[in-house]
Give the backbone structure.
Amino acid sequence: MERFLDESLTAQLAEAFAPLDRDVEIVVHVASRLVVPGQEDAGEEAATLQLVREVAETSERLTVVETTLDEGARARGIERTPTIVFRAAGSDADNVRFIGLPSGYEFQTLVEVVRMVGTGDTGLGPASSERLAELDVPVRLQAFVTPTCPYCPRAVLAAYRMALANPNVIAEGVEASEFPQLAQRYRISGVPDTVIDGPSGQERVLGGQPDKVFLDAVLKVAGAAASNAAPSATTA
């Protein structure tokens, strides 16, 4: 398999990751036939592993961990491979995920989430952070994307910002063309399309909207948490 990164892009990534001040683990869940026989969609496992390994070579702060999808991961909602989890080294957090190969425009998502985890700077505004702090129930965002969509990274990164700010938020980027049956299940007809599930129901956010739009939807499906989080006049 040919390399994904040429010398120029490798140098750009090394520069982009220079500000990282904490170690980042990129955990890649791959399939075990004993655990997931005949999963409905077959993902690009080999390509995903190669891509993240090449990315990790550009910074001593980055480590790739390959792990077999097991029942424990499935119990936490990780059901498809490859699923990439981004987390601080030494953490057991697994709520910031990308399902599939982050290629095309979604390579930008990969680079940016590594930067967010590795610097602690998510870019989430103080007003949004204050509202999100009220969330005390699990909420799951699935942002369906494709590699050719220039607006998709904005949706995935909005979900990631909230997940990094509050562990009750599970944020997943889903490569819709790689997992067509999952996309069909949610009737995805265009991207980005973010499906948000919580105790009080389901909401959808179409397009790459501002963070506040995603946050409003998250708090709405959270139910009681939403009623305690009054909108603020401060810029989100």
Q: What stands out?
A: The chain has one domain: 7-227. The first strand starts at residue 24 and ends at 30.
